[in-house]
Design brief:
Number of helices: 5
Shape: globular
Radius of gyration: 18 Å
Low-confidence stretches: none
CATH architecture: Sandwich
Structural class: alpha+beta
CATH superfamily: Aromatic compound dioxygenase
CATH class: Mainly Beta
Order of helices and strands: HHEEHEEEEHHEE
Length: 242
């Protein structure tokens, strides 16, 4: 691609992002989010599918960071059946998310600031560009339904708020595909720290996120965040109807 063409594409992407940001700014998820942060026993965690950046065959491991730099995050997930809240033992829990610069392994060519291809985004599937696996992993739940992943707080990319994808299956059958979200205040703080600060504050926040709107606030997808000596810990219980 010539330098002129590259500059033209960059200007187009900036214009598209400005238009998209203005459109998303008309969304107000705040009331929906306030209703969705806690579930009753009979409710289910929001099912949002796998999203466009899923890659089958994530490594089985607890620490998924590889060489990615970022604020350490210890993610505790518990899977239970909605209604009875009985632990789901032996379930496969897979997570994946972007790095501090907004890049997904397997899709590094897309870039965090590039305006997404709308058709592929609508179909919720992009074609992988590489075979990297950073910030991807899966484990089986113990008898109490628990798994724990050591990762980093994700960054942001166009046009999404900070999130972590989670997929739960049992005996090869999918049970849940959802996304975990962070409070806007927490996300804003993280973005003042290295290496996140190099990209600046994200224009995309929970209050205006289209996926949160589609999921009606994304019930049950809001971990409890608390500081640790070296970073943060996030705890969430996923309520699943089998």
């Amino acid at each position: 691609m010539s330098t002129t063409a590259g500059r033209l594409n960059t200007r187009r992407d900036r214009l598209r992002r400005r238009i998209l940001t203005a459109i998303l700014g008309r969304i107000d998820n705040r009331e929906r989010i306030s209703r969705a942060t806690a579930l009753t026993a009979g409710q289910q965690t929001a099912n949002q599918g796998n999203g466009p950046y899923h890659v089958p065959g994530s490594p089985h491991r607890r620490d998924i960071r590889e060489d990615r730099d970022g604020v350490p995050l210890l993610l505790h997930i518990r899977t239970v059946e909605s209604g009875t809240l009985t632990a789901i033992a032996g379930a496969n829990v897979e997570i994946w998310h972007c790095d501090a610069a907004g890049i997904y392994s397997g899709y590094q060519r897309y870039g965090a600031d590039r305006f997404p291809a709308l058709i592929s985004l609508t179909l919720r599937r992009f074609r992988p560009t590489d075979n990297t696996t950073f910030l991807r992993g899966q484990q089986s739940t113990d008898r109490d339904g628990h798994v724990e992943f050591r990762t980093i707080v994700p960054g942001w990319y166009t046009p999404r708020t900070l999130h972590i994808h989670v997929r739960v299956s049992l005996d090869g059958e999918p049970l849940l595909g959802t996304e975990l979200y962070f409070p806007d205040g927490f996300a804003a703080h993280i973005q003042t720290l290295p290496p996140y600060a190099a990209r600046g504050l994200s224009p995309y926040v929970n209050a205006h996120d289209i996926e949160i709107r589609i999921a009606d606030g994304s019930p049950g997808s809001w971990p409890t965040i608390q500081p640790t000596p070296d970073g943060y810990r996030a705890d969430v219980t996923l309520q699943i109807r089998r």
